[in-house]
Amino acid sequence: MEEENEQQKEKAAVAITGVSTRDVRFKNGEGDGTDAVHSEGTYGYSICCLHTNYECFEGSGLAFTLGRGNESVNAAIVELAEVLIGRDVEELMSMFGSVWHSISEHPTLRWLGPHKGHVHLALAAITNACFDLWAKVRGQPLWKLLLSLSTEALVNLCDFSFVDDVMSAEDAAQLIDEHRATRTEREVVIEEGYPGYDTSFGWLHYSDEQLEEKAQSAISRGFDAVKLKVGSKDTTRDVRRAKLVRGILGPDVRIMLDVNQQWSIAKGKRMWEELKEMNPFWLEEPTQPDDVFGHKDLMDYGIPVAVGEAIPNRVLFKNFMQAKACQFIQVDPTRTGGISECLVVALMSRKYGLPIAPHVGDMGQLSQHLVLFYHIALGTPKLFLEYIPHLANCFTYPAHVHDGVYETPRQPGASSDIVSDVGDFSENGLFDTEAHAHISTNK
Asked: What is the pTM of this model?
């Protein structure tokens, strides 16, 4: 016991001494990553790097982008994260919800959002870096750390402002406690792994021949669910491709259709009439992502709507849930304000009985931890997690999917470290150089 206490004291002494950023961009292969909006298939990250007084501990936090604009996000990271310098990691995370709220309500930078746009992406990167660093200091993978926390500690990670009419801190504590006794029934997922679905087979610019080849490959790799991009200007092509894929895969494979926000409400209904015979599992982002009542209209028409890729904050998610404007929640830790805000959205999703199937701007790296927590701690259905393999070689510990199932990550942290020699465009930072001269902006 004394040895354990000494170890905890040592961990509590880890303090944040500096913040730097990385601007990384990746050019995908021909056709990879293309959809009705994005024709070039470039992926990017604004990365927040938190440095400490121990060289062995560094937090890495991702915000997903398409490359251009990283400069703005990274500048905001440095501005917003300044308040973290000098903070003890354990003390910081014991009250992270309050810290998150304070940063999100920055008296001047808030004007550039609020709670959306590049300042909120910056907050996502900062938040995710804090959680990654904390898990590394604790020597645990993020999912295991979250599951080890008391109800009070979990609630303290969250900011319930502006959603407390449907999910207050007291409501969250009650929901967590209600599912604590039955956790062991769901912990089998740790050894079994979490189901995945393949997005990489169905990019918009793939030819029919590529679709057929990649569809068969997805099945041979163990996937029983896939996603196909639609929403092109040529609607007859969308319908033909959707029916082609259904014919290749047969009636039992779940096929999701992703419109990427391209249809009006009227067009969405017309397209559904042409597509519903191939039995889509869901229709993702059918229209403008802020249009709650438009999505509600489509739901009332009988369309199974999935949203989340472009929803930036918990308040808009709350509105979708209150309006019964969606059937599936795709909250993304690199699009909202990071892991902390995802926890709030997950709690609300559980209250409203909506399954979570995250959009993976993180390529599944962080989300593979979060879905384990959602399922075990909150009792959310074990649906599936999106899988996109194009950047696997860029991560220090890439997510592993075998026979269509995510293997449980075991390394300490949030699996968000990107190898040092890929895609760097620039770095900048802010450091307490007097106290910790060994840290430099060239780190």
From this structure: 0.94
